[in-house]
Structure prediction request, 471 residues.
Amino acid sequence: MVPSPHKIVWNNCLNIIKDNIQPSSFSTWFEPIVPLKLKSNVLTIEVPSHFFREYIEEHFIDLLGHSIRKELGSTAKLEYCVKVDSHSKGMPLPQQGQAQFQNKTIPFSRINRDEVASPYVIPGIRQLKIDPQLNAAYSFDNFVEGPCNRLARTAGLSIAEKPGGPFNPLFVYGGSGLGKTHLGQAIGIEIKKLMPEKIVLYVSANLFQIQFMDAANVKNKLTDFMHFYQMIDVLIIDDVQDFAGKPGTQNAYFNIFNHLHQSGKQLILTSDKAPVDLKDLDDRLLSRFKWGLSAELQSPDYATRLAILEKKCYNEGVEVPREVLEFIASQLTTNIREIEGTFWSLLAQSTFNKQPVTLKLAQGIIDSLVNTTPREVSVQDIQKTVCSYFGITQDVLLSKTRKREICQARQIAMYLSRNMTKNSLSSIGSMIGGKDHATVLHSCNTVCNLMDTDRMFRQYVTDIEKRLKNG
Prediction:
């Protein structure tokens, strides 16, 4: 039996593709494709899912276009049909669209593929339907305000009403689990609600980096990348500290930042550190981070922690005894993520085990999920951690050198030994350079004074203390 024309064309294309990609990629992304028909130089293929189609267009569009043009000529087009399982009820009919190889699609965010986007789109001429990548749960309604976040939240609401205003960029910083991602997305959600025509995009710094590297390795693709991001009205970059040590990515973002800022577009960035404390970032980029408003998210106080739990109860329509909420709020003091995780575990345990929510149940969950017992550390542990942090040897730390950086490292070791161990001042001094108790006491006072006046120094101590507590 003679194969149909569409199968012959597709098999010839597969032979070309197979010679140009890894076998594992070929079996994963091309063997599942089924050719359906060939009409007027348009080859129709069936793909298993929308994600499958997007991945093909994002990673293999040039190779696919080359192979089909070689078989059908320069006017060749590819029509795709997304498969829908026959047992799926109420599902829409398969969607179809055309990928024209002379106008490659832009792969840097999920867009409506019913529109074919030129890689050289000029902003203002054509609006793409871009998925903003926002989680509806991260709204302002679900963001509990307190002294720890009032400045950042108020600024975010102001930006939502007038993007591109005085708070541009907005730089939100703070420790893990304090709500940076929530706030950034809440601003984007509110802007889309008030101004649906705005193009809003949330992306992590890590994903931005991956996209940039992918674009930089393919001819002409970097131009697509830059033009795509220059079309965004509100760009939210999460965890910008991940740009550290990546000069190429920093340069790309620097140019995108300049274009958007000069065009009156809104930029929002989150980080685990303030701009002044970020390392391995270009000075010109750091200076731009300081142009607008820097707002810190701090650990929530007791009242805010309790309000977060009460909000969770209200949203979920459940009743939890007040004493249980107060207990959780009193035990989990630094991280909102831990508070939420404990809350969900409490409800799950109660539901699955068919038992009431009690103080005893909450105590058991906190004991199993959160290490509330401080880790015991020794003076030797502290010395090793300090040396590792500053990149010095233990011999140097314990030497009699008066170099400023070594003296400060030694003082930090003494300060942490006093706070985190039960050793006496004399004992600490004898183990750290053979000092007396007066020297240790002076070192501790010096560290306290520096922490009050020097942000960078305070960050050193905080980082080392976290390493010791986390093991």
Remarks:
- Residues 302-369 form a domain with the Helicase, Ruva Protein; domain 3 fold (CATH 1.10.8.60).
- The first strand starts at residue 34 and ends at 39.
